[in-house]
């Protein structure tokens, strides 16, 4: 099974689907490469909106693939992976097209970081999400913490990051993290949510995104995301983090 799918949907929507439902759509290096490729494609003249979702109805994305990244032990090793993904999420943040995360199921850890880098987030009824990194003795490491702190009111963003809790769709809507809860087909929900943008000229969409992107430049967002990756890498090397990942992996083995 391909780990990701890139598809052109109706009305100029380019859709990136993380296709690892048995791993709750966790991100490995192949998915990272796919996302890089899709973001490049989304810059094309024929694309109006870039959307990201996960395969199946259980998870949008469970963050970094804890089994794939389990071999990364040192700060330097972790920084390579974290910094690469922070670079990808920055490209997503400043893509000169409107972007939307369709949260078809749970968004956990790095899954929330990917969603944060999009302009809009819609969530399926019953979905849950949370920045759980703190429970693994690390912080956000893909730049999503820096993004969240700018997109949500500071007190709400800090509470989400510090508490590292999983929240319901209704709570996430109250926080301003998701902008609509949908019930039926995720692509129809996306087309409906973005319909106002989809009937505009691409040049208009690009002009507004370019306007917004000035703000990220002024806020030195690229540098802040890189520093976030570097700080997370320091915590990554610590025994406390490896112990927490071991606990997750062992729980998994016991269930087999
Ligand atoms: C590394 C980057 C870092 C960042 O910078 O942000 C992070 O992303 S840290 C956060 C990493 N993610 C997590 O801690 C989430 C771990 N997963 C879960 O908490 C749960 O799986 C879930 C996402 C809430 C879904 O729960 P549920 O529907 O009950 O599914 P299971 O737990 O039974 O999982 C099914 C299957 O998938 C495997 N899985 C899930 N998440 C990951 C993951 N992130 N990496 C690797 N594998 C994952 C899980 O082990 C199960 O496997 P099997 O037992 O073999 O079926």
From TrEMBL:
Reactions it catalyzes: (S)-methylmalonyl-CoA + H(+) = propanoyl-CoA + CO2; (2S)-ethylmalonyl-CoA + H(+) = butanoyl-CoA + CO2; (2R)-ethylmalonyl-CoA + H(+) = butanoyl-CoA + CO2
Taxonomic superkingdom: Bacteria
Record's keyword annotation contains Cytoplasm: yes
GO cellular component: cytosol
Keywords assigned by UniProt, alphabetized: Cytoplasm, Lyase
GO biological process, any: fatty acid beta-oxidation
Pfam families: ECH_1 (PF00378)
GO molecular function, a single term: methyl/ethyl malonyl-CoA decarboxylase activity
Enzyme Commission code: 4.1.1.94
Subcellular location: Cytoplasm, Cytosol
Homology family: Belongs to the enoyl-CoA hydratase/isomerase family.
Stated role: Decarboxylates ethylmalonyl-CoA, a potentially toxic metabolite, to form butyryl-CoA, suggesting it might be involved in metabolite proofreading. Acts preferentially on (S)-ethylmalonyl-CoA but also has some activity on the (R)-isomer. Also has methylmalonyl-CoA decarboxylase activity at lower level.
Protein name per Swiss-Prot or TrEMBL: Ethylmalonyl-CoA decarboxylase
Organism (species): Mesobacillus selenatarsenatis (strain DSM 18680 / JCM 14380 / FERM P-15431 / SF-1)
